[in-house]
Amino acid sequence: MKKRRVLLALGTADIGKLLVEYTIPAIIAMIAVSLYNITDSIFIGHGVGVMALSGLAVAFPIMNLAVAFGSLIGVGAATLMSIRLGQKDYIAANYILGNVCILNLITGILFSVTVLIFLNPILIFFGASSQMLPYTRDFMIIILAGNVVSHTYIGLNALLHSAGHPSKAMHVTIIAVFMNLILNPLFIFKFGWGIRGSAAATIISQSSVLAWQIWFFSNSKSSICFKKDFFRLKKEIVKGIFAIGIAPFLLNATACVIIVLINKNLSFYGGNLAVGAYGIINRMAYLFVMIVFGLNQGMQPIVGYNYGVALYGRVTEVLKKTIIIAVAIMTFGSVLVELFPHSLASIFTDEKNLIDITTTGLRYAFMFSPFIGFQMVVSTFFQSIGKAQKTIFLSLTRQVIFLIPLLIILPKYMNISGVWISIPISDLASSIIAVCLFTAQYRKLQNKKTG
């Protein structure tokens, strides 16, 4: 009964209080994840070397692709669960939990086996030079070996959040990150395991919190828990998960393509250091993007529940407040980077040339980032109300329709500057499209609210 009262609060409690309750834990969790990625790069940059840092940048697309499959299931299931809970369909919610576990097991194993078989050719195609390859390979072998753990951990945490336990989801993430921050320097510096130590720290940390998640969902007194009868794939649930999850999947998959294209361009026009610079830029951008992602993660169950029970006025209210906060976060990031790019780059390395290249790239990459905050919220909003096609389209506009052609054309005429300037141009162009789609949908919600 307590669980159901928590869910009913999504449709009755003050929107501002709900946003604080649901977004603050998610944002804290995302900040923790981002800080892990940043400190991970710092440990590798100072403890292993510049080539290892560049190798990590080459490994990032594969990790992005793995996250894409995790998002396909986790985000899709979380959104579907929010809608089903809004409709008070607890049987479907339990089936979603069981199906997530099965799907993560299948995709995690298939992805790991496939990539491990072709690992060397993939890494070389993704831009790994002969100097980077040993580091990148050592790192990815361990990450791929634990990929099932990563997939399941991401999926169950998304469901934990959508099932009305945002604080527990936050604590799970923070514990994993905290363990990682302890194990990383221990394995790299004390044990001398190098970049393999960083990968091992990641998998061990995630395995520990996954054990707790399994224990939590094993509580038979909860309205949503593991039950043998629900561990069967159901066509309508799998179809629903994939229909909603395809949007974040394509977002992460196309991000993989983009990173590969950028890395190859940077390698050709700027060498190994330029690839390492982009790795640092990615880590910095990831921090602010993940904060907004945490904000969106908190918004999603509120929007999904209220849309499911036709409380459209509450949907528009949470949407407006989330947009304002997201734009403010990304604006802060843009100002910070424009004012202190050299200092930020110096955190990761002492190599002067690498710092100089990173400084230039940072200013370009964050030029129009406030617009990205708006676009991210709008994209998640469409996903939360089950309109996956619009989310997919928004994902494709920035990364496929605009960024890929720019990355192919501009570097031919502007060299490495063409790579950097492609990023803000695509940010601005895709945000204009997001404004148009958002305006049309917002009017429909207003009409439903007054109708």
Automatic annotation (TrEMBL):
Cellular component aspect of the GO annotation: plasma membrane
Annotated compartments: Cell membrane
Chief place of localization: membrane
UniProt-recorded Gene Ontology molecular function terms: antiporter activity; xenobiotic transmembrane transporter activity
Membrane association type: Multi-pass membrane protein
Transmembrane segments: 20-38, 58-83, 95-119, 139-160, 172-193, 199-217, 237-262, 274-295, 323-344, 364-385, 392-413, 419-440
Record key words, sorted: Antibiotic resistance, Cell membrane, Membrane, Transmembrane, Transmembrane helix, Transport
Any one Gene Ontology BP term: response to antibiotic
InterPro entries the record matches: MATE_fam, MATE_MepA-like, MATE_MepA_subfamily, MdtK-like
Family from the record: Belongs to the multi antimicrobial extrusion (MATE) (TC 2.A.66.1) family. MepA subfamily.
NCBIfam families with a match to the protein in the record: matE
Protein name: Multidrug export protein MepA
UniProt organism field: Endomicrobium trichonymphae
